[in-house]
Inverse folding.
């Protein structure tokens, strides 16, 4: 898809989101919610058909990528919200992020499949999905891990000592791998700024970051981690300067579940997609939703 076509679709997205801000919760009325997003992404995403993409009803958040593409999202609210004065806590807030690395196409596809499952779930959870954090990388002629300025967004978060540790890690540990360049400063990129703002404003009690293709499950932060999601087994790989797990899980105390799918271009079977989802919900129920779990989502005393 040429960038002229992309620009035209961005204009359509802007019309759909007139007045949108980064605190938008509900999809705005307008022609075909999700239509512009599907026009942009559908041809790139494995295992996603038009019906599934349209049903996600993605809307522009009001923020844009380095090249000016809308950053789309979708909120899925629980079946019923607590009424004021009833004495129940607000729903658990869960943020799901895909395609932080633009060449990990299945990460965006899985997020879209999970939007469909979230709409049928009955848990007291407020889901916020950002299926494609790095649209410039995903829509590049050849999809790239980095964004349009060559920055690895998962090394661009503001962690302690970033100015020294991030460049040193890039130079010494990655030998200046251009796919892992952390940028010139923390939060230098509009995409990482947007995700940082979501963590500050939405205040998620769980972050699920979807990646590929290492075929493992990682975890940072408080609570006992899930031991498996579907076929993926827990294998804690540690934290890196500027990574989301370091910033959210270690610094902010938000549990960060990092899913590494087996393949960046080929989706798991539908049964595996559902198995990972069911395992995630079971872990959330045991560790974050039950009154005896000590999680913020429990009933107020």
């Amino acid at each position: 898809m040429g960038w002229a076509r992309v620009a035209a679709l961005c204009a359509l997205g802007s019309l759909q989101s007139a007045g949108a801000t980064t605190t938008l919760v509900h999809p705005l009325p307008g022609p075909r919610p999700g239509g512009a997003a599907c026009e942009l992404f559908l041809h790139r995403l494995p295992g996603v058909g038009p019906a599934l993409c349209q049903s996600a009803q993605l809307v522009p958040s009001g923020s844009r990528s380095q090249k000016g593409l809308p950053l789309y999202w979708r909120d899925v609210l629980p079946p019923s919200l607590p009424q004021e004065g009833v004495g129940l806590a607000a729903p658990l807030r869960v943020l799901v992020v895909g395609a932080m690395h633009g060449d990990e196409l299945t990460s965006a596809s899985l997020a879209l499949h999970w939007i469909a499952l979230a709409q049928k779930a009955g848990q007291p959870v407020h889901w916020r999905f950002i299926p494609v954090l790095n649209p410039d990388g995903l829509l590049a002629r050849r999809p790239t891990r980095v964004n349009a300025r060559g920055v690895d967004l998962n090394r661009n978060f503001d962690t302690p000592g970033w100015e020294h540790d991030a460049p040193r890690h890039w130079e010494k540990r990655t030998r200046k791998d251009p796919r892992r360049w952390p940028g010139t400063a923390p939060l230098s990129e509009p995409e990482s700024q947007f995700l940082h703002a979501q963590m500050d404003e939405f205040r998620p009690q769980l972050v699920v970051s979807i990646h590929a293709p290492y075929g493992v499950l990682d975890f940072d932060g408080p609570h006992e981690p899930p031991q498996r999601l579907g076929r993926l087994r827990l294998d804690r790989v540690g934290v890196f300067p500027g990574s989301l797990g370091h910033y959210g899980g270690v610094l902010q105390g938000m549990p960060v579940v990092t899913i590494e799918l087996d393949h960046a271009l080929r989706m798991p079977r539908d049964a595996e997609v559902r198995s990972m989802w069911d395992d995630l919900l079971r872990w959330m129920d045991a560790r974050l939703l039950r009154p005896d779990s000590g999680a913020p989502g429990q009933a107020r005393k």
